[in-house]
Design a protein that fits this description.
Layout: H1 2-30, H2 35-70, H3 78-110, H4 113-146
């Protein structure tokens, strides 16, 4: 059971990271694309967040919660608190990305072109913050956990 939980936990995290990378790339590629392709890439960005990134972060959180419930001594280890904080921030960030991406799609559909550039910049900022938080999670579960955190 422990191996299966760890597998699902890591699989969810990998799906989260992959979806995060993909949705940022879709939006970045849409800038120079033809209008029909641009619209499709923007929609794909929003869909990737909703159907892959968010379920993946929740899958990771649920499997992590089960692992901690099965071994509550982990709660006495400082590295886990840092990891949990970063994961919670990633979950909030994913929701902000989802709302922003949907607003880009809706603005495009309603012809509110002036709103889109600001939302693109915001999305890029979200992507940068997400990259830092993913790095924090990885540092917490490797260097900090293994070297006395």
């Amino acid at each position: 059971m422990t191996s299966a939980l760890l597998f699902l936990h890591l699989l969810s995290f990998a799906a989260y990271v992959g979806a995060g990378f993909a949705q940022v790339r879709f939006l970045k590629r849409s800038v120079s694309a033809a209008p029909a392709v641009r619209d499709e890439l923007e929609q794909l960005c929003a869909t990737t967040i909703t159907k892959i990134e968010l379920p993946a972060i929740f899958g990771s959180m649920v499997t992590g919660a089960i692992m901690v419930a099965r071994a509550p001594d982990y709660l006495h280890q400082g590295w886990l608190h840092g990891k949990l904080t970063a994961v919670l921030l990633l979950a909030v960030l994913s929701h902000l990305e989802m709302f922003n991406a949907r607003k880009i799609v809706n603005a495009r559909a309603s012809g509110a072109e002036s709103e889109i550039e600001g939302r693109r910049k915001r999305h890029a900022t979200f992507g940068a913050i997400g990259s830092v938080l993913v790095a924090v999670v990885l540092v917490m579960v490797t260097f900090v956990r293994l070297h006395g955190g």
